[in-house]
Predict the structure.
Amino acid sequence: MASGFFALLDDVSALVKASAASLDDVPAQVAKTTGKVSGIVIDDTAVTPKYVVGLDPSRELSIIYRIAKKSLINKIFILSPAALLLGYFAPWAITPILMLGGAYLCFEGYEKVHSLFSKHPHEATEAESVETITPEELEQQRVAGAVRTDIILSAEIMAIAYSQVTEQPVVNQIAVMLAVAVFITVAVYGFVGLIVKADDIGVHLAQDKYSAFTQKFGRGLVKFMPHFLSILSYVGTAAMLWVGAEIIAHGIPFTAHLLHDLEESLAHIPALAWLAKALSCAIGGLLIGFVVEKLVLLVKKLLGKDKKAQNA
């Protein structure tokens, strides 16, 4: 009896050691996954600051915290379990879902690029010109809009995270998914908080009580932030296009081989290889976004005709 008990303890000890050794790989897997989703992270970081523009500066960090909390809850309690369950019961669905998400990113990126060349800032609908809402309602609308955008980007992040650990033990999969969820959320929204308060920091540093160099730095920071936000917006749009197209490309064997061959042909110049792949994917993303937009317009047109026919 005693020998059987000690044998059981030996088995448990061996299992614990194996699990610990397996978990040692988690930081490396998290780092690898973070690299894979860097484009989406850039886009998420670039998109979020716009949701606090025009609101009370004293509410900015509170709003970002609310968005970050929702984002983390969605990643941990909805998106991660959904990815794990899909991976267990319907692993074949992961790639198509990723590709659909990639198509959405291309569509959003194309819409942003299109709006740059067809913007009519003085045009406004009658509803927009007369609608009046309170600051609290505006804040609620901004938070809701940010959460809707974030959940799509977060779904892509968690799906990609899962795709990197499909061959790992379940414990590793859960650990990596949770670590990625926490790390990405803290990194993105921590940086967003720093961005939106950078001008306030600059104003503070520009006060007379600081040295001339500090005051000059503060004034320079205030002047630089609008340009930085503009650049970040362009980078985010480019990231949305290249990430979306790359996700789709990796889901199709032919295009996946083309991207691989492109990288291999320029492997001796890593920076050029990355640039060529990113540029190719961005152009492909624009084309995909254009096609998706036409399909969306066609569906809306058909639905509009159906509604008119029903009303008639």
Notes: Residues 63 and 140 are 9 Å apart (CA to CA).
